[in-house]
Design goal:
The chain is an alpha+beta fold. 31% of the residues lie in helices and 38% in strands. It has two domains: 83 residues, F0F1 ATP synthase delta/epsilon subunit, N-terminal (ATP Synthase, domain 1); 48 residues. Helix 1 packs antiparallel against helix 2. It is elongated and about 55 Å long. The two termini are 21 Å apart. The relative contact order is 0.15.
């Protein structure tokens, strides 16, 4: 991939608990509620709502990603990007075994519960765990 500019994006990923990561990237692709967007250096300021999905980025050395829950992306001036999400996990840190256990637990909860709130939480957990499995399987295959 050829980049026309030497400018870089300065990205910070923050969850409810802590600043998870800070890195420099050539491009960031985020799952917004309006659809997937890619931000390159020089992008106009933007504030958008994120949905659960895969946040991908390209550094000088590699392509990598996070599985993120809902939140916001703030693209500021001077190529500053702030990703604020409820939770996030780096693709390389995903445990396939834990994700598969979460799928099983969500299915069990969904089959037993009559509480609407609990059902919604189980569905969200299931969606995230399935996404983690998909991302983990893809990244494991691409790194062989």
């Amino acid at each position: 991939m050829v980049y026309m500019s030497k400018q870089l994006l300065h990205v910070t990923v923050i969850t409810q608990e802590k600043q998870l990561s800070s890195f420099v990237a050539h491009a960031v692709t985020a799952p917004t509620v309006q659809g997937e967007i890619t931000i390159l250096p020089g992008h106009i300021p933007l504030f958008a709502k994120l949905q659960t999905g895969e946040l991908r980025y390209q550094t000088e050395a590699e392509k990598d990603s996070f599985v993120v829950s809902k939140g916001f992306i703030d693209v500021g001036p001077n190529n500053q990007i702030m990703i604020m999400v409820d939770s996030a996990v780096e693709a390389r840190a995903i445990s396939l075994q834990k994700a598969e256990q979460a799928v099983q637990a969500a299915h069990e909860t969904m089959s037993k519960t009559v509480d609407e709130r609990e059902l919604m939480m189980a569905e969200a957990s299931l969606k995230r765990a399935l996404l983690e499995i998909k991302v983990a399987q893809r990244t494991k295959h691409s790194r062989i």
